[in-house]
Amino acid sequence: MSTSESELRKSMQQYGKQAFSETEQIKILNLLLEDAKKQLSREHEIYQLIENYQLKLSNEINLNQAIQFVNKFIIELESKDKDSSTVNYLKQHGFYRILYRHPKLLGQELPQDDILHKLLRSGFIGVGISAVMILLFISTAFFTAPLWLTAITTGLFVGASTYLSGILYGVVNDIFATHANLPYFLLGHQSQQTSLLRTNDKVAQGIAWGVAATFGPVIIATLIFTVAATITAFFVPIATFLLPVMMIAMPLIAVGAEFYARKKAREYLDTEGNFYWIGSNDYQRRGLNYMCPTNEERAAWYANSDRNLFGFTKVPLIGLGALIGLVVLSGISMFLPPVLFISPVIAIAIPAAFSAVTCATLIAGGIYMQVNRNKQLDDRYRLEFERDEIVPDLYLDEDMEYIRKIAKIYAQNEPTVEPKQEVINTENYSFLFDKKPKQAMPNIKQEEFEPARLSQAGA
């Protein structure tokens, strides 16, 4: 048997690299925290936070457990570091890359024939069709066309505007939601769901889920608006001036849902001692245990369900009100100022412009999502989709010079840690300077190696 391509690639990646033990890698984490701590005054809240976690690390010998500690530290730091100065310092000096470049969880992607992928594709096809309907409406509105054609194109335009408004609501709502708690979408939240996209980009995930989750209800609303508007347009002018109001109102519902979700998250924190049940399948539970270990994160996860419930109960009411308003105002058009119905600017240009801008925004969002659908950022939400197993070690390839530099600095200075904490000195970090690169041999199986060695000996 020959050595597989994956085994050869792994051997090539390891060749010439320094191999550190778990204890040595924990020391490196401690050293990086020491460097961040030295940028602060001893009285600073973040200084004390770092020192507390250093104390935990000083007694830890298991790398996986140490990474769990540091991951919790990052979560707490991000919530307490109001000006993000320490967070930015750690990011700029490679701490996030070192800690998160090797994902700690295997990702599971939904198959391409899953209903969510079909809804996502259909959603953007609908955006493209809406763009055509806008152009068709403009062409028949500004140029002479038969009444029947004008009525049909006006009805289709109303339907397109309704569709774009609904999809825009979904995207805005879910971008808010992914920033509140990304794993709710990254891992899925129903029992049959895993990852829709591979990316941990919050905006890309929000766009994808916003389109996929709202397509079904929105297409129903679109059909109702289209039929009602088309029938009405055969008898009276359509109150198209109402459409921009609807397109503004829909994203505002998402803003209202954001405030509602924050309120629910606070209520969960006030009433729940612990969040034992979270996630709907094993994939989600394992991911949430690592990505959302704090009650604050888990409360946000629960609140995203309330956010969705808020939207699915309030949006239909707004839509129903818009439909009634559209039909009623069109029906009493003879009692309203004629300028609302005959002005090219008010009745045609402004509604078409709002719809066109919304359509262009969604198309740009779709392009962004497609470009970034496999992008992996260096944070705790990174999942391993390329390999069949996770790499347990820290990622040190790009930052060894920086690590050696700060090791020299803190080896020469007086330690400022508490007595129980491990002292930063030359002896503790000599492995950074003395260790030779590991000369990794290809991972050849025993039965392959023996004949080769015998043949060389015979030669």
Automatic annotation (TrEMBL):
The keyword Transmembrane applies. The chain crosses the membrane at residues 124-147, 207-235, 241-261, 317-336, 342-368. Keywords: Membrane, Transmembrane, Transmembrane helix. It comes from the Bacteria. This is Uncharacterized protein. The lineage of its organism: Bacteria, Pseudomonadati, Pseudomonadota, Gammaproteobacteria, Legionellales.
